[in-house]
Amino acid sequence: MAPEGTPETKSFYDSEGWRKLEDGNTVDGHLFGVKEEGPRRRAIYERSWSRIKDYMSSPPSGEVLEVGCGGSPERRILDLFDTYTGTDFSTQGLDIARQKFADAGEKARFVNADAVALPFEDNTFDTVYSAHMLYHILDRHAQAAALAEMVRVLRPGGSLVLTTANPRPLFFPARAVIRIVADTPGLNKMARKLKGPSPIPYNPAKLSWYKRQLRACSDLRIVNHSFASTHFNQNVTEYSGAGRVIWSFFDRCDGRFPNASAYLGNYVVVLARK
Fold first, then answer.
1. Among 132, 177, 208, 259, which one is most buried in terms of CB atoms within 10 A?
2. Nearest-5° angle of CA 71, CA 72, CA 77?
3. CA-CA distance, 85 to 65, in Å (whole number)?
4. pLDDT digits (tens, 9 = 90+) for 182-204
């Protein structure tokens, strides 16, 4: 049986995830977005984006594919390349993405596609970019299939850029323990009780898994993207008290030790060349 993306994820985004709330935000943005845009958060985010941009061809150009763009396609990626293609298996998400990129004209196109079976020829794109998508595919074999598809459609020498989760964040030991329990056969139900209900499937692979899957690629790097978990990001201010000290620590670590920080925090960027 051929692998496929997770139906629960598709159902959530087709029926609920991109629904607008009274405040103008989407359900997805409410659940996973940032609620406080402080200078420490912005500094960490801008450094992460700078590392991504520096890794891609300088200056980036040619054709870029964003896999799993949903209703929030990455505008900065669009602006860097000659042509942009966004894919997702949520039709509602793609409708929103088309509206957001309407000003791009023929430079941008959107294709309804499952990440595990991309409808493109081999060696089509100069860069493949995907953010916060792969860990919402529940089955690990399907995750591997999606990753292989991204590499397949890359041209030789092209850049693969993945923003994904680190399930063993050393600075967040409680989260690491929950994921260890979740990854242990027979203990999954206990992990769900510890973590609480989740609106969509979540099954992040260990960073060593990416190294194995991408061993045929060159110049593989894993660098920090964000220390904070979604819960921490939405609930701990950087303007006062202990939060101010912790966010300052995150900022300093990310600036000085982006490679080592990948193992401390919750989200990383995986970079590789075909």
1. 132
2. 135
3. 5
4. 888 777 666 666 666 678 889 99
d(Cα 23, Cα 38) in Å, to the nearest integer?
Answer: 20
Radius of gyration of the chain (CA): 18
| pTM for the model | 0.94
What amino acid is encoded at 74 in this protein?
Answer: E
